[in-house]
Amino acid sequence: MTAVAAEAVAGVLAGDLPAKPSARRLFGLYLLLGFSAGLPFYMFNAVLTLRLSRHGVDIVIIGFFAWIALLPTFKFAWAPLIERYDVPGFARFWGRRRGWIMLSQLGIFLSMIAMAFTSSDKSLPLTALFAVLLAFWTTTLEVAADGWRIELAPTQAEQAPIVAANLWGYRSAMVAAGSGAILVAAWADWTWAYLVIALAAFLPFPILAAMRPEREASAGRTQALVTGIITSLLVIFAAALVTALLGWALLSAAQGAGLSAKTNVTPIVLAIALLPFVALALALPRIRRLPADALSNMSTFAAPYVELFWRYGTPVLAVLAFVSLYRMGDVLTLTLSHPLWNDRGYSLHQIGVADGVVALSASMLGVALGGFLSTRMSLGWTLGIGAVTAAAGNWIYVWLWHSAPSAFVLYTSVAVDQFGNGYAGAVFVVYLSMLVSPKYPGAQYALLSGFAFLLPRLLAGASGSMQTEIGYDGFFLLSGALSFAAIFLLPIIVRVRARAAP
């Protein structure tokens, strides 16, 4: 971490956070928030797929677990609630955004503890339940943090360094979670691995609790903290109960429909993926004809999304197609890269090192370059470079699969993959942030970022079925080609212009 970053984080740790932080302290704040969100993400995604693979779970079932990562795709469903309602206790002292972040961190901590004590994976439905809860609270944290980021830094020039800081923190945490958890599992077991990361994920909570109030508080710190924790525990319990009931209903429906590990789900997934585009294409003409004042009379839930489509009209279909393809390779690689390494014979220690120093260094370099170029070049050029680097990060695994296992092959492949995805991730976040309206930053960013991962994560759930049909080499050739295909939409999306917001 640079001296500037260290000083910025020190300012945040000291609680010196005014309503409008300086650029340096904002940088430090989003390093911490990115770290807070990145730790749990790997634990219900890449680390979980490796854990299941080591326990001998079928590759098709492991692919199904990738559908847990679909949950962030639908964060638009509860994002308006986060923008409108406060968390009792927390919000009275720390404000709405930080209140939701603190609630989310409690949910993340408890979900990961539950995953630790069910780490034998003897009951896969139970494993899935706690992984879904971890994904839900991680996503809620991201919604609150993203909305706050866009409010505090509304322009492209302001966004680029903050996005870089957030992704540095996020990817550092992903690497810390991946490498740390895997190395702990190698030395002890998976229970200790999840316990260690749970404790690390909870560290930002006391830091936020020690910060100054967002405004003149109507309650003391201790009273707000106690009230907020009690409320949060009730909300977390209710969320767990609802998730368990929904999960039971979905599993029963799937079994009733005859779905199993032997079912070829790829055609079904592709058909489902087309539904949002069809529905939006049918609704757009009517939305476009709405008078501007009609938006002010809409419900809290509908207004942010209708406003987005009202501003962009029919060209929004091209934008959504572009964002659906752009991160395709990153998502698909994350799903099967760890099972690939495991099947190729690499040890937990080797995988832990690859997910540690190698991945961190390469991804930080990619994020830094992406953030820097976003302040110097047009988004069209930076996005185009990102499509190429992301595709290369997928294709490199074809070489790994056909090469004799060695540290050089593994670490080189991971470095190329992480650099490409770090760069593409940075410029992509800047691009999405420039599409939203300042009136609805959190909800609209949640919709766009969620939609961006809908098709990739749907396909990720079918990745196990795809791998059994075309092998690892065919899978990674295809995923890289899909990422590269986004470049053909660039001439269209760079010309998209929004009409004036109402």
UniProtKB/TrEMBL annotation:
Keywords: Membrane, Transmembrane, Transmembrane helix, Transport. InterPro entries: AmpG_permease/AT-1 (IPR004752), MFS_trans_sf (IPR036259). It is found in: Membrane. The chain crosses the membrane at residues 27-47, 59-78, 99-118, 124-144, 165-186, 192-211, 223-248, 268-287, 308-328, 348-372, 379-400, 420-438, 445-463, 475-494. It is a multi-pass membrane protein. Its main location: membrane. One of its GO terms (cellular component) is membrane. This is AmpG protein, putative.
